[in-house]
User: Which sequence fits this backbone?
């Protein structure tokens, strides 16, 4: 397996749905391009794609950069090499998608944001996770993991319960939304209600521009590959589970002795010895 590399492509993909047709042409070019010797000057690229240099600037700003110059510097410095050898085409397809998800997660993640989120979780009186379908299953997994560390957390996937739950939400509550596509209306509505009730709200999605400050306080971007939401080759839960594991590790560091005590107690309730369990993997 190859190393993990940073790339600008996940950033482009995370805003793709909010781009204009001409900006999508620009995005498609940079996502598919493999020629590292190309002249990336704005004049040359604009000529190749048949767009204006002003369009390149607008595209770059939508990707979160100050302009095209900053975007292209980032793009050129973060190219991912494709040098993995696989034993079969089936293994190649699946593991290639896995490797893409890992690389894109590494490229998208912001350590300060994850640390801030883990700290907010640790001090929350209540935590709710909203999700539908595969995102709902990932929400349940997150609930089961963090509950064992003493966090009062609940996963909700029922539409009616999700919408009514806002009566239990206040400023001491953290509400998390899981939506790969970012367009599940019931999740968006429930998150909007929670935000209006002064809860600390965070959306995990691959399409961060689909969510604004009226819906949530902040967005944690999630990695994606083509047709991920359909689950055609790998589980749509995978990128959500990866980011959950990263947050879990940061969360463990906040008041670690207390978390460790809760974890041991949860193992004891299941008749599992922590030391014996850990020794299996040494």
Assistant:
């Amino acid at each position: 397996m190859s190393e993990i590399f940073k790339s600008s492509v996940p950033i482009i993909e995370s805003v793709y749905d909010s781009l204009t047709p001409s900006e999508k042409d620009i995005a498609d070019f940079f996502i598919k391009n493999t020629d590292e010797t190309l002249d990336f000057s704005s004049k040359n690229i604009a000529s190749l794609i048949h767009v204006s240099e002003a369009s390149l600037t607008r595209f770059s700003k939508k990707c979160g950069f100050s302009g095209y110059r900053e975007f292209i510097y980032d793009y050129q410095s973060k190219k991912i090499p494709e040098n993995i050898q696989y034993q079969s085409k089936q293994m190649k397809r699946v593991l290639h998608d896995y490797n893409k998800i890992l690389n894109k997660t590494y490229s998208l993640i912001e350590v300060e944001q994850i640390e801030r989120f883990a700290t907010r979780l640790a001090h929350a009186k209540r935590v709710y996770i909203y999700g539908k379908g595969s995102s709902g299953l990932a929400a349940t997994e997150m609930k089961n993991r963090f509950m064992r560390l003493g966090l009062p957390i609940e996963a909700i996937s029922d539409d009616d319960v999700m919408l009514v739950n806002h009566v239990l939400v206040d400023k001491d509550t953290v509400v998390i939304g899981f939506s790969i596509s970012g367009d599940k209306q019931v999740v968006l509505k429930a998150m909007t209600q929670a935000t209006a009730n002064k809860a600390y709200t965070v959306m995990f999605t691959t399409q961060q521009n689909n969510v604004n400050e009226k819906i949530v306080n902040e967005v944690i971007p999630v990695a994606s590959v083509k047709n991920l939401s359909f689950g055609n080759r790998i589980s749509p839960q995978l990128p959500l589970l990866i980011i959950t594991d990263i947050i879990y590790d940061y969360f463990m560091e906040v008041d670690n002795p207390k978390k460790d005590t809760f974890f041991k107690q949860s193992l004891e309730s299941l008749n599992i010895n922590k030391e014996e369990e850990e020794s299996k993997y040494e």
Notes: The mean pLDDT is 84.
